[in-house]
Amino acid sequence: MAVAIANRSAALFHLKRYNESLIDIDLSLSKGYPQHLLFKLYERKGDCLKILASSCKVSFREDMGRHIRAVRDIMPGEIVLIEKPFASVLVPQQYWMRCNVCLKPTVNSLPCPNCVNVIFCSEECCKESQKSFHRFECKILGYFKLLELDRFALLVLRTILTLPANTVMNYTKSKMSSRYSKSKKIILNDKNQYSWDDYNTICDLVTNEDKKTAKELFSKSIKSFMLLKLLEQTDYFNDIPVEDLPAVKIQATTQMLNHLLSFPCNAHEIFEIRLDPSSVAASVSSEVGAGIYSTLSLFNHSCDPLVTRVFYGDVCVVRAMGLIKKDAEVTDNYGAVFQMSQLDLRQVQLSQYCFKCTCDACKYDWPLY
Ligand SMILES: [Zn+2]
Ligand SMILES: [Zn+2]
Ligand SMILES: [Zn+2]
To answer: Domain SET spans what residues (predicted)?
Structure first.
């Protein structure tokens, strides 16, 4: 049995069904595959993992900007990316139904020990929140509604609160950095990788500042100042020496303004699909929150996308919807697919992202489905 399953894993490997091959390899190992042949299975497992780990790469072209490209054929249903957000927030109507840290639904929730604004799914998430952003946010969350600050403002604040204040001065948007890949126009970490938890990648997301009106820029500047005033109500700046405070506050406000400009074009809505058991077509998407994902933000839009997103709490899983050929650009959808929405409506929906879509569905005005 173990040998038969191992042989099937070899056949699946040659058919490029790497996920299924991996499952069979593990099954064969658990069924007692002969010891003296084990090296073959481990070698195949290593090959599968290597191939799966590198289905895509970040590319750059003057006319397309940064984008994601397939480095091999990607099979329908295959996972292209699993990414945790740098920061995420719930929409207010979900505050009493989901954990404020992982965004998963909970029925046996735990309250915050110090405020009545949030709940957590477990001791672990509660402790995590007290160690990180909620330690500061706890005192000021109530003001967000009063000041009519939206979810992007809270997401910006939470992004800053995940960093210790004494490191705020280390971040600048300098393209002169030695870690900046000029050919791909991306920032790499110490291991030469583009990483989801590297704050520099969040700072480097496109802001479209030059396409904003003076009124918009003024309004965002006021918002960043309001966020600074809220931060001052917390202990966030407590460890900063008094002589450094003005410079650190200016830097924090500058970064918050940068994020207030970039997040509306780069943050992703986190949603869940409410499945209608009688008809898949009647199932609806329900908004859970918003998150900022550095790699996910590099996927360009198409009205006829090649991948789809599913969220588990705030973890995003991106899967191929059909066969994606090697070298093809891997496109996502920013909320307007050609099957459901007409060309002119799609262009209006996409206007917040400051680009005009030129995908084939737009070029040839494909009919609705
Ligand atoms: Zn949780
Ligand atoms: Zn609290
Ligand atoms: Zn389009």
So the answer is: 47-335
Nearest ligand to residue 356 Cα: 3
Judge contact between 58 and 204, C-beta under 8 A: no
Cα–Cα dist 332/318, whole Å: 9
228-274 pLDDT tens trace: 999 999 999 999 999 999 999 999 999 999 999 999 989 999 999 88
42-87 residue pLDDT tens: 888 888 777 666 788 888 888 878 889 998 899 898 888 889 999 9
Alpha-carbon span 54 to 274, nearest angstrom: 32
DSSP string, 118-175: -EESSHHHHHHHHHTTHHHHTTTHHHHHHTT--HHHHHHHHHHHTS-GGGGGG----T
Tokens 């599913």: give the residue: 310
Nearest CA to 230 among 122, 144, 355? Answer: 144
User: Considering only the top CATH level, what class is 56-83+293-363?
Assistant: mainly beta
Length of the chain: 369
Residues 19, 77: Cα–Cα separation, whole Å: 10
**How far does residue 107's CA lie from ligand 1's centre (Å)?**
12
Distance 355 CA to ligand 3 centre (A): 10
Residue 251, both tokens: 């830097």
- pTM higher than 0.85: no
One-letter amino acid for residue 297 of the chain: S
Handedness of CA 113, 118, 119, 123 (dihedral sign): negative
Is the distance from CB of 86 to CB of 203 less than 8 angstroms? no
Distance 262 CA to ligand 3 centre (A): 21
Tell me how far apart the alpha carbons of residues 281 and 70 are, in angstroms, rounded to a whole number.
30
Please tell me the distance between residue 100's alpha carbon and the centre of ligand 1 in angstroms. 7
One-letter amino acid for residue 70 of the chain: A
Report d(CA 290, CA 310) in Å as an integer: 13
Ligand (nearest to CA of 304)? 3
User: Which residue spans of the chain are classified as CATH 2.170.270.10?
Assistant: 56-83+293-363
